[in-house]
Amino acid sequence: MIYKTNFQSTSNMEEFFGDTGEKISFRCQYSTGDNLRGSLFPWHWHSAFEIDLVTGCDIRFDFEGTSLNISQGNAVFINSQKIHSYQPENSVKYKTYAFLFEPLFLAGQYNGEIFQKYIIPIMNSDISGLEIPASDPAFACIKEIIYLAEEEPEYFEIQIRIQLEKLWCMILEKVKSEKVKAPVYKEDSERMKQMLNYIHSHYAEKLSLEKIASAASVGIRECSRCFSRSIRQSPMNYVNQYRVQMALELLMTTGYTITEISEMCGFSSVSYFGKVFRQYTSATPVQYRAQLEKLDY
């Protein structure tokens, strides 16, 4: 089965999959464009490896310090534990088929020979993502896995595992040949996880650069440099973007007033909330809610 899903994450920005947020070994899912949610997708990470087949429009996948522009009809591999986000060229037309699998799904057991020889080298590499064009032999495995997950023929679980093993061998070869420049600031990744975790847990409160920096035990200048190097945003710009993401969810799923949502998402005033909201959605909160009512969302 292929599940339709919207992005969900835990408070420390780790994406989870499944209706109750449980960790599962393998999951195939698809996401489609939504003109109500727009194109705001939070930075996040997960322990699972991820492979996305991009359709509908091109999508830019952002990683710490780098990006991959994936054309529709191609695919991308996303490494375990790597912070990432994505930006569709068209927030309504995009569609992705994604399958995610935990390292244990391939390795069988932690610290076994397969895990040590073939899984750990990828996880510990400096590669965040790899493009897999439609002309690549690995692409045929991706298409077959999606077909098996959707149609569920007899023994499909075993067949998916076989295709994943073939695909993993090809990824290993791609990693060998890929020339990846190691990031200059390797400590940024852990710092970013700590600071983003703090923002995601305290966005409803009054936040300052000093508070965000203290979450990673760095000064405010290093905090700003870390954000700039990693996600190419200032800390406070990211705070506003995340607050708008949370406001979108409240507008879509609750009956709270605009004033209440503004306060719940940490904005200093309703007028400032409206200004920031419009920057990211091209609509005011009132206009956005009117769209929802027209569509009976």
Automatic annotation (TrEMBL):
Keywords (A to Z) from UniProt: DNA-binding, Transcription, Transcription regulation
InterPro entries: AraC-bd (IPR003313), Homeodomain-like_sf (IPR009057), HTH-like (IPR037923), HTH_AraC (IPR018060), HTH_AraC-typ_CS (IPR018062), Tscrpt_reg_AraC-type_HTH (IPR020449)
GTP-binding listed as a keyword: no
Domain called HTH araC/xylS-type: residue spans: 193-291
SUPFAM superfamilies for the chain: Homeodomain-like (SSF46689), Regulatory protein AraC (SSF51215)
Keyword Transcription: yes
Stated name of the protein: AraC family transcriptional regulator
Species assigned in the record: Blautia ammoniilytica
UniProt lineage: Bacteria, Bacillati, Bacillota, Clostridia, Lachnospirales
